[in-house]
Automatic annotation (TrEMBL):
GO cellular component, one term: cytoplasm
GO biological process: cell division
Lineage of producing organism: Eukaryota, Metazoa, Chordata, Craniata, Vertebrata
Protein name, UniProt field: Cytospin-A
Calponin-homology (CH) domain: residues covered: 77-180
Known role: Involved in cytokinesis and spindle organization. May play a role in actin cytoskeleton organization and microtubule stabilization and hence required for proper cell adhesion and migration.
Quaternary structure note: May interact with both microtubules and actin cytoskeleton.
Residue spans of biased composition, Basic and acidic residues class: 12-22
Low complexity bias locations: 37-57
Record carries keyword NADP: no
Length: 181
């Protein structure tokens, strides 16, 4: 029986896949390369996405364009409901926070501060917040997230008990994209 040595061939990919290839002892590296080129089990491609199916590749592209689609897949339902569930999960355990919608649940600024506190605890002193001072809480949220491209219109948020749900959702979406993608 001819002894065999094992050559481990690895290709960098998202999963860092490795395969073992058996070759008879004494086989030259050139012969191994030729064997890899003709073997259906061994790919020596240098493309990092060679193992990604076209369907997965298209899903990755879609998620880069619209990160909420991945969130909707994770939580099920519409993108809006998935984002709402994400907010509920992120703010779970925060005192005086009960997010049930994208309007009145956000009217005092505390939900924004709680959401941002999960990422920026040094910038939002959550224990010191006061739901009676809406303007101050919206200012804190805006100041904590100066790098975020979409920021709130504080005057609009302060003057109403039911902020426009589309504006709130737009701002929360910007927070999600900024910190989660």
């Amino acid at each position: 029986m001819e002894s065999a040595k094992t050559l481990s061939v690895s290709r960098r990919s998202s999963e860092e896949m490795k395969r073992d290839v058996s070759a008879p002892e004494g086989t030259s590296p050139a012969a191994l390369m030729a064997m890899g080129a003709t073997s259906p089990q061994l790919s020596l491609s240098s493309s990092p996405t060679a193992s990604v199916t076209p369907t997965a590749r298209s899903r990755i592209r879609e998620e880069r364009k619209d990160p909420l689609s991945a969130l909707a897949r994770e939580y099920g339902g519409s993108k809006r409901n998935a984002l709402l569930k994400w907010c509920q999960k992120k703010t779970e355990g925060y005192q005086n926070i009960d997010i049930t919608n994208f309007s009145s649940s956000w009217n005092d600024g505390l939900a924004f501060c709680a959401l941002l506190h999960t990422y920026l605890p040094a910038h939002i002193p959550y224990q010191e917040l006061n739901s009676q001072d809406k303007r101050q809480e919206f200012l804190r949220a805006n100041q904590a997230l100066t790098a975020c491209p979409s920021r709130q219109d504080i005057n609009e948020m302060v003057r109403t008990e039911r902020p426009d749900w589309q504006n709130v959702m737009l701002y929360v979406t910007a927070i999600y994209k900024y910190f989660e993608t």
